[in-house]
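Protocol step 4 of 6: structure prediction from sequence.
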Amino acid sequence: MAKKFVPQTEPLSAEEIQEQTRFRMEKLKALQEAGKDPYEELTYDVTNHSTEITGDYDSFAGKTVRVAGRLMSKRGMGKVSFCDLYDRRGKIQIFTKIDNLPEEEYKAWQNLDIGDLVGVEGEVYMTEKGEVSILTKSYKLLAKCLHPLPNKYQGLKDTDIRYRQRYLDLIVNPQVKETFEKRSKVIKEIRNFLADRDFMEVETPLLVTNAGGAAARPFTTHFNALDIDLKLRISLELYLKRLLVGGFERVFEIGRVFRNEGMDTRHNPEFTLMELYQAYTDYNGMMELTESMFRYVAEKVCGTTLIKYGDLEIDFGKPFERLTMNDAIKKYAGIDFDTVDGDEAAKKLADEHHIEYETWHTKGDIVNLFFEEYCEKNLLQPTFIMDHPIAISPLTKKKKGEPEKVERFELFINTWEMCNAYSELNDPIDQRERFAAQDATAEAGNDEADHTDEDFLNALELGMPPTGGIGYGIDRLVMLLTDSPSIRDVLLFPTMKDISK
């Protein structure tokens, strides 16, 4: 049986919390024995939400409304009481008087607990202290809260409990709701932006036989009905490209992908990725689209293109800086890899700068390691890093005149990689050779390598148009726009260690 978490309610001890739970269970039993089981209530006709009323008092003054939500505070005893009712929009004060309700109903109201879910019908009025309130005419208990909630002044600060019991986090920390409402709006506005550019949203498989399109270890499973091993997808790329072969010109998908890798403040094994592909354009077209979309979403979601993240002010309104990867390394490490000849020379430089590498690494891999070591930490404002080594870009078109490089870019903001884009490789012969090179590195020990995908190659052999493609980490964008320090703060149910055993 899973271990049960007990919210740390100050100043109650664990024994007192158990006692409070027992009292609440006894109240529920008494209600049920009296034929007033709250769980038998099927519906409640809500006419309005809290902030509709508090934000437009002149329109609601004197009118009868019906609201529903959770009681989060109780004040007053005797003949009058005040409670704060929280619904999905916010809170409103409920004023209840003994002479407005039958005696038994008023007594039952006073017997309610913080956390109980109620429906209240009453008249909107303004208290002498100027607070918009509802004067109770009738009410219904809709669900009983059987455990005491954390003290409202202490809140719920234990991040382990917050992430494991997100429902409790949402109850007692209203700002958490705002984060996830903003997340929903981010995704909505991305869809709106792409719809205006004539993109079509599609869905592709989560379970695949060949998990390609990214450098990551997949999760594996076995499908009994067909007696085959399957993997959870690590990318959306290869199936979306098949659709361009089939004749669609602008497609995108927003969905979960799964990578069997480490966890930190920016990584969770399952996360939300968006990929889009547009025929008859290249990575320059993807840069324009990305810059325009980030600016649009910031304006729509936050009301400004100047975004505060911690102490950093990020300016989405200015043109994004553009640097090649080699120029960035030259700028921040003082090394010009355009003049470095071959794998051994690159490895010698890595040794001199104490940068660790694998035996199978090539010059291109070393270039990327130098970039990660010296450059990423300096990329605070939106910056496109372009023209990556071919060795780390197996699905990308070569850059004309520079055979060691490809037409690829990554967008960095606040030192984070925010997206990855290519001029997509549509030459099936070249692609087969790239897959073969990836297979070789896999045999040499690279467990994140791509593998040859014969069906994808067959699709390319039928002809895929020149294409620009890009993948965006939605969770990191939400982190930026909500000033959240960890990816777990923007995932409703992040992956957690099983502590039940």
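Step 5 (inspection) to follow. Confidence is low (pLDDT under 50) at residues 1-9.
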